[in-house]
Amino acid sequence: MKRIFSLPIIALLAGLLFAHLTAHDQQHFIVDVKGKGTPLILIHGFSCNGDVWKETVARYQDRYECHIVTLAGFGGTPPALQPNFLEAVKNDLLAYIKTKKLKSPVIMGHSMGGILSFWAAASAPGTFSKVIAVDGVPFLPGLLNPSATVTSAKPFADDAQKTMAARTREEYKAYNQAVFQTMITSPARIEEVNAFASQSDIPTQAQVLYEIFTTDLREAVAAIDCPVLLLSAWIAYQGYGMTRERSQAAYQAQIAKVPNATLEVSDKAKHFIFYDDPTWFFEKVDMFLNKKS
What we know:
The chain is built from 12 helices and 7 strands. With 293 residues, the chain is an alpha/beta fold. The longest helix is centred in the N-terminal third of the chain and has 19 residues.
């Protein structure tokens, strides 16, 4: 019988197939798992990594199996940059849940992680039991300007991406230091976060910054079929004329389409609520987690 495929050809085809599967299945994050119980997925914010959740994990790991996510190119992890990076992360998160057979996980994200939490829950109804967004909203530009759209935000997003991409490592570290001073009260915490944040891949941060400003989920979140808790902060913007009432109204508008959403407003914290107001943060999260759906 005539041999159709030689061994070298079979090896080549197998190699190509493996390469295809590897590329297709590549995850855009790493995960550290601690604890046992109900799955709890934790996603950090812009420039950061999973280290921001240390105190949160310490509190919940006796009752929850904490899946601590760090995105590729963040906080010293190798980059895996591609177009529509955040959407790829969201899709990989949903694939990860299926692969690991996580049953009705809770998902909690800070800032950018909050956006991803909203996006994942809206994209896969029936997957999550609860969503917690820590000062992360469906459309960031809309928080300051309710009439903002992706189109109107795009010029600013383009400029932000170009400016970020052009920074040297030292410039990026100095930029982070200045930004974190507006987001965190404790000087020690600012230094701690900047130590790992400044190791992030700059091209990745530039693209993600663009995507944050051009991703509008305000309509999409109507598909979320589980309870949502949004924790917000406002005092860092008092100097710009922000009041508690205006801030609360702006955050409430962000989740107006979510069928079952609760908004809580901290009067002490800046953006990193779990650092600035931990007692309040854990009180609100505990109440939400313990509440029967």
